[in-house]
Amino acid sequence: MGKENYMPIIKWTPFLEPFEDMDKMFEDYMPARGGFTGLVPAVDVYQDKDKVYVETQLAGIDPEKVDISIENDVLIIKGENEKTSEVEDKNYYRKEIRRGSFYRSVPLPSHVIGEKASAEAVNGILKITVPKAPEGKPKTIKIKTGKK
Description:
Elements: H1 22-26, E1 43-47, E2 51-57, E3 66-71, E4 74-80, E5 101-107, E6 118-122, E7 125-131
Antiparallel strand pairs: 1-2, 2-7, 3-4, 4-5, 6-7
């Protein structure tokens, strides 16, 4: 018998974009990032000429209990799912509804003005709108010489 080689099983994610948020890739391998265990909500990110938009579902979540921040062009959404009165001794046949805290960090596709961001919750969807920062125009620099 020869020596057998074992390879770890890696979840195949064919639709993961190359620079997509690292949360998706590492959530299976790092269940407790910095002591945090919780939900990673799905997001849609799109943009137009002037703004970046991020949408995520808020079903069962009180918008007042959601914290949104932007730092270095990364949007962070975190909060707590409302906990219904769960009975500890239930004998579950199937339990798929996830409750507890949630966290998502999303690198935005362009430079933004974070302090001018706005957010609104409508019909269970949280929509965050962030204006893009104006692109810096190239500045022409004149070279000074000692000649007169």
